[in-house]
Design the sequence.
């Protein structure tokens, strides 16, 4: 297949010599750049622009037990530095997904993280059992945090007990060799508490974060712009929230594998997540205007790491958490003794 070249030209600049391999649990990947669930279905669209098998992994759109039409239209609205969507987990159902999408991903040799979603704990358990005998599932992302549902009571990630209950059911139902990632919501008082509960329930890693709940009013019609009224906000507007969540969870769980998600457009953005404690990153909203963004961001991240003297990605993970050096302490003490005039 001839692939179109869309996005930012990398020119003939040689790639820096940085070891970009990483892991999520025991799932090893040659690149720390993945797709974000929901932004590229199961990869066929992106494969027109670059070989998706070169990604760290493809994170599929969240799949449910039965076919689902999603929410009423309009379902998307542009916002400053972002996008609001209220798709409602539209999809073909698990059996059609396995027959068509998972089969295609396996045939293409794409590392695959299957995202699953359900209305009840029993549905998540059933999804895991159905996927268990199938090859090509490298990890499971348990979407317990989607804001695009009519009943906010279905957002299991808003409470530690409901979140841990779903994760425990998936962990005991899926093959023990398949890592389970819990995808969490930023719309909670203390995301670290939810993360710890998921860890104790058997999560092998965490995806941070899902979209945050937002709303837009159309000032011409003077009504909500989305038929579902509220939707999930994504894009650069939420990146500082996502980085904060990664930081807080890394502080609470120093050894927990984290997949960082939220508003990543460049390698420099991705580096923020890595320094905050992410082992890998997922790229989502940016692919709507730059389908080749995951490939570009991998190259840019390698350059950013090399420019800071890192020979491997793993050396940069959680680097922002290191204790202050003597020079920084001296500067801090000097500020306390002689505060700036504006203080």
Sequence:
């Amino acid at each position: 297949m001839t692939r179109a070249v869309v996005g930012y030209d990398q020119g003939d600049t040689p790639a820096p010599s940085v070891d970009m391999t990483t892991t999520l649990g025991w799932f090893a990947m040659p690149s720390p750049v993945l797709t974000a669930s929901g932004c590229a279905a199961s990869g066929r669209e992106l494969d027109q622009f670059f070989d998706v098998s070169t990604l760290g992994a493809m994170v599929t759109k969240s799949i449910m037990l039965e076919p689902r039409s999603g929410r009423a239209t309009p379902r998307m609205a542009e916002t400053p530095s972002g996008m609001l969507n209220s798709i409602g987990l539209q999809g073909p159902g698990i059996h059609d997904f396995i027959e068509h999408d998972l089969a295609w991903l396996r045939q293409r040799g794409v590392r695959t993280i299957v995202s699953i979603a359900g209305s009840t704990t029993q549905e998540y358990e059933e999804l895991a059992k159905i996927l268990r005998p199938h090859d090509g599932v490298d990890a499971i992302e348990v979407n317990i945090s989607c804001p695009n549902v009519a009943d906010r009571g279905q957002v299991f990630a808003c409470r530690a007990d409901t979140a841990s209950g779903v994760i425990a059911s998936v962990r005991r139902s899926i093959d023990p060799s398949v890592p389970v990632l819990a995808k969490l919501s930023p719309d909670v008082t203390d995301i670290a508490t939810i993360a710890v509960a998921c860890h104790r329930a058997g999560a092998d890693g965490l995806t941070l974060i899902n979209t945050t709940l937002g709303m837009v009013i159309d000032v011409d019609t003077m009504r909500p712009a989305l038929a579902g009224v509220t939707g999930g906000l994504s894009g650069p507007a939420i990146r500082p929230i996502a980085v904060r969540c990664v930081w807080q969870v890394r502080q609470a769980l120093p050894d927990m594998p984290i997949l960082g998600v939220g508003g990543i457009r460049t390698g420099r953005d991705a580096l923020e997540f890595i320094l905050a404690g992410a082992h890998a990153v997922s790229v989502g909203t940016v692919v709507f205007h730059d389908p080749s963004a995951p490939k570009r961001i991998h190259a840019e991240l390698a350059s950013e790491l090399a420019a800071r003297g890192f020979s491997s990605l793993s050396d940069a993970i959680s680097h922002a958490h290191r204790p202050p050096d003597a020079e920084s302490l001296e500067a801090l003490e000097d500020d306390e003794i002689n505060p700036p005039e504006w203080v």
Notes: The chain has one domain: 22-337. Residues 4-12 have pLDDT under 50 and may be disordered. The first strand starts at residue 22 and ends at 24.
